[in-house]
Design goal:
- With 928 residues, the chain is mainly β.
- A hairpin with a 4-residue loop joins strand 18 and strand 19.
- The radius of gyration is 33 Å and the shape is elongated.
- The termini are far apart.
- The strands form 16 sheets. It has a nine-stranded antiparallel β-sheet. Strands 2, 3, 5, 8, 9, 10 and 12 form a seven-stranded antiparallel β-sheet that branches.
Amino acid sequence: MKRPIVYICFLFGLLCLFFTSQAQEAKRLYLSGTGKDNRVNWEFYCTGGAHAGKWTSIPVPSNWELEGFGNYNYGFDKTEQVGKEEGLYKYRFPVPKKWKTQHINIVFEGVMTDAEVKVNGQLAGPIHQGAYYAFKYDISKLLHYGKENVLEVKVSKHSANESVNAAERKGDFWIFGGIFRPVWLEVLPQPHIARVSINALANGAFESLVKVNGQADRIQAQIYTLEGKAVGNVMQQSLAGDQAQIRLKGHIEKPLLWSAEFPHRYEVVFDLYDKNKLIHRVKQRFGFRTVEVKQRDGIYVNGVKMKFKGVNRHSFWPSSGRTTSKALSIEDVELMKAMNMNAVRMSHYPPDDHFLEVCDSLGLYVMDELAGWHGHYDTSTGTKLLKEMMIHDENHPSIVLWANGNEGGHNFDLDSIFLQEDRQQRPVVHPWQLFGGIETQHYREYNYGIGNYDHGKDIVMPTEFLHGMYDGGHGAGLEDYWKHMWSEPLSAGGFLWDFADQGVVRKDKKDSIDTDGNRGADGIVGPYREKEGSFYAIKEIWSPVFIERREITPAFDGVLSIENRYAFTNLNQCSFTWKLKTWSGDGVATDSVSGTITSPDIKPFEKGTLHITLPQNWRNYQVLYLTVRDPYKKELFTWSFPVQIPKEVASQLIKEEGTNKITHEERDSLLLVHIGALRLTLNKQNGQLLQVTNGKGTIPFHDGPVLQQGINNFGNFQLHQDGAKLVFASTFDKKTNYNTLEWTFFPSGLVKLFVRYFPGDYFTDYVGLNFSLPEKEMLRVTYMGRGPYRVWKNRMKGQSLGVWDKAYNTSETGEAPWLYPEFKGYHANLYWARIKTKNHSFKVITPDEDIFLRLYTPAFKEDPWKNYDLVFPSGDISFMQGISGIGTKTQKRENTGPMGMKNIFYDYEKDPTRAKELTLYFDFNEQE
């Protein structure tokens, strides 16, 4: 499939013009596209699987499975070895005659997995083995100058080197084939700068190791700000003979330091001269910063002990596999920083160059990782690939740690190579192991981990913890873990597993997204970066501005205690605003007022107070919001505080008086109550509401209350008139009827339910009252409470108090269609809810605090480990005073900390004054 002659001539002309304009700088000519959104078609032939056995075309870069070729394989798929698919690529390109005096490399940033490269029918060099590493060949002597050239690449998906397969392809992630990162020609002058290794320290010291290919007279370097201002003196050194490597040293006074909070960078320009003529120029961005491990103490960045708030990230996109883009890198880093993360681990291989560039520019600490997953490279292969990784990544200031493989995939012979190659001598860790004084334990239970902090001697930094699966993990348990991680001196923080659900678009399954069951549903965000509830929980828990809990009472003086958990930022660099808001009983916002707060002068790691000046009528509002923004005006979090507690809001909504006459009749075991057009049928023996009808028909809400994890021994009901009200109540008996229930019917049509009860055990998964409301009847719920996401006992953070409207959906976290927030589950701090069914709507109001509204039960999940473990009461709609936690992929909920344990209640031998009480008001009059 040849390129049209017109196209080749046009490209040829552009190249000649382009490369004669600035000959002293290296040029990059892409033969492929630059990422998933910019690709170039090459000729392609796949040897096995779908669409095999014929020449066609494929966009490059790409993974061929995502383009409809070959077979899809997850890391545990042993069938990958059987077919051993290969992809044959061809691409034709012109080269100008003027390049004949240049040094030309062909560069591949990533090929899965073995790559045999030919140019004009001749091998460019040895077959490259290893998928995630940039490699290059000098093809200067293989090119036809002034003519068309043919590039051929044979890619073997399964490596001929079993150590490569062990390190890269036998892991818990999708494995693909193809030229998945860009390909380009690197055009250099014959004598040129081949490598620059920089070490720039926080004290302003600058050192660079420069490798030169060919003979030249001297090299000099100048540091500039990114605005182009020269800083420091010119560094220069003469070259003697064939001297290939020199050191340049310099110093600048009081440099602006690079950190995740303030990612200040500089640019150094290296000029290579021969006979006083500039022959080559290299520009390299870098940052001044120092990384140091102090044994039995911590990991320090710029002299400050660091707490890494990190996450593991695969290079991944559903429709393109491991082929990504700079735009995606920016999106991912911004999402991480939006969760108040300051670190990311590259799991389990080096990332695209643009991801590291974005971490440099936006500010994120990086742990860069040599591939390995329970298996590792042999020493010769690993040494070669490690050097390729170092050459590609070494000057990124964001990289503060190296990882030698993962979970047993550590080749100890390579540890010394890291130190030999890295000018900065950054720490090396073995994820899952104790190495170099850093314990990187994975998925330890809460008590085990805290034991390490309290009694161990080593720095503790789990490189994977709270393994997400569906809606479990991540934010669930994090509050308990982080309390100890933050306070314990030996903790260096940790890295959650993991960032995004690994779901691929399967062309063989009607373009549906496949997560390989529960293996890929591990993310905080979905495949297309849809935000789960844990996203917001992490955002609050990891906020660098910590707000100490305070109840907003009528005596509130506007003062909040706060803590600065930044490492380098004074809180006077942040901005603070407040807002008061109130709603009507229909959920319509009726009034709001806002203002700014003077930012307090609180240094890193210090505590202080925040003073909010509120209007005199602040008590007339229902909720107070506090928003804090970082120095870049990005929201850290918005906290919400109840100004009016449920009983105050309920008093505004509850209307007991009315003109309706209340009548009743008894039919065998039934009590029928009439309030105007409203008809209620109750069971006289157990007090359950059996049916509700109004002028529009029967409301599908019935069969309750049913006490959960308690004895439904309501009995000996008595009926009596209380003025205009009718009361139907059970009688307390310490032995037989110690749980009591009372219905009160008001002339307004309002119905009150009051239950006093004792949970069935001291340790309970949940406690509360259930009712039936078939899912097929449900349309939506509008409620005042914390939302819009559901909560778990061990994931209460991240939600905001307000009014939320949720349409019924069957979304399940980590599965298609990734529509969030989910409808089903527990919702915290209920004030009132309007429940709308297909033909009716009704309202529930509670004056009680800390009530959870339960909306149905999420679907059962396949869980071979039996840790995820959804625990819900029976029935459909519940009003709970205690709910369960959620487990992770690797831990049961009770092992994620105190918040994951069961609820504890004591009945003091059925003393009525010790019973739990729950009050609900129902308005079954039609709500339009």
